[in-house]
Specification:
The protein is α/β, with parallel strands linked by helices. Helices cover about 35% and strands about 20% of the residues. It has 9 helices and 14 strands. The protein has an 8-stranded parallel β-barrel, surrounded by 8 helices. A two-stranded antiparallel ribbon has the order 3-4. A two-stranded antiparallel sheet has the order 7-8. Bound molecules: (5S)-5-amino-3-OXO-hexanoic acid and zinc ion.
């Protein structure tokens, strides 16, 4: 493995703009964030959007505008979150696919999420997986806990591989209620990946750096961003998503696995070229 996929998750659904002024919440902020992150090594953008009051939304019109704008203004692979916020109903989460992103997340099971529950029923997961197969959207299987990899094995066995045939997972580590952001947990998860799968990893909060270093050592890829990390160093708030991507690119270079070119990421993950659509087009 010669280079590193860097995914940026710039916004998430959990932080409030009022608390985190640097969080990109408007379409303009998201596009400029995408451009800045692409310039310093990101190849995939994992997108949660906000409404006019900066609250999380899965509004389909806004999602379509977002996909079109990111395609027009950046070269990034656009991955929409089908996870949304813990309060989003299943039908809204399935509807995300109608925005025809390049990729979408597909969380492989229920997990306690702080004091909330991020619910992902088996039947819902199957529906999401099958709709992505039909629409030729590449899933990123989100793994919050080791048992989610057992569910992924069962999903692939019973319902077949995703569009393009390649399996890519993202280990989301350190969520209170999920697997811890430790090297032991990462190694256990890597051992349980489907044969031939690639993975990225992200460590929430303080586990960001240990998880990134462990992922690189284990041949994995990186996800960073303000969805997962708001503190750059003790007492130092993150200034921008590009700051986190630049640090990830630096780590990848030190590991002699520099950021992967977007065209190579498309090939590796079998992401379809849906063409560039003009904003508003
Ligand atoms: N916001 C979390 C409840 C995903 O994007 O697919 C779910 C999440 C996972 O962020
Ligand atoms: Zn997300």
């Amino acid at each position: 493995m010669s280079s590193t996929i860097i995914t940026v998750a710039p916004t998430g659904a959990e932080s409030a703009k009022a608390d985190v002024p640097a969080l990109p919440v408007t379409l303009e902020e998201l596009v400029s964030t995408g451009q800045e992150c692409e310039a310093v090594g990101a190849s995939i953008i994992h997108v949660h959007i906000r409404d006019e009051a900066a609250r999380p939304t899965l509004d389909l019109v806004r999602l379509k505008e977002t996909v079109a704008a990111l395609r027009a203004e950046t070269g990034l692979i656009v991955q929409l979150s089908s996870g949304g916020a813990v309060t989003d109903p299943e039908e809204h989460r399935l509807r995300v696919l109608d925005a025809e992103p390049d990729m979408a997340s597909c969380t492989m099971g229920t997990v306690n999420f702080g004091t909330d529950v991020f619910l992902n029923r088996w039947e819902f997961i199957v529906e999401l997986h099958q709709r992505m197969q039909d629409r030729e959207i590449v899933p990123e299987y989100e793994i919050f806990d080791l048992g989610h990899l057992a569910s992924l094995a069962k999903l692939l066995d019973k319902y077949g591989p995703p569009y393009g045939g390649h399996v890519h997972c993202d280990l989301v580590m350190g969520v209170p209620g999920g697997m811890p952001g430790t090297i032991d947990a990462l190694v256990a998860a890597v051992h349980a990946l489907p044969a031939g799968a690639t993975f990225s990893a992200t460590g929430v909060g303080r586990s960001t750096l240990p998880v990134a270093l462990a992922a690189l050592s284990a041949g994995g890829h990186l996800r960073v961003g303000m969805e997962d990390t708001l503190t750059y160093a003790p007492g130092k708030p993150v200034e921008s998503n590009a700051q986190l991507v630049a640090r990830a690119s630096g780590l990848a270079r030190v590991a002699q696995r520099p950021p992967m070119k977007i065209a190579d990421v498309r090939d590796l993950l079998s992401v379809r070229d849906r063409g560039r659509v003009a904003v508003g087009g």
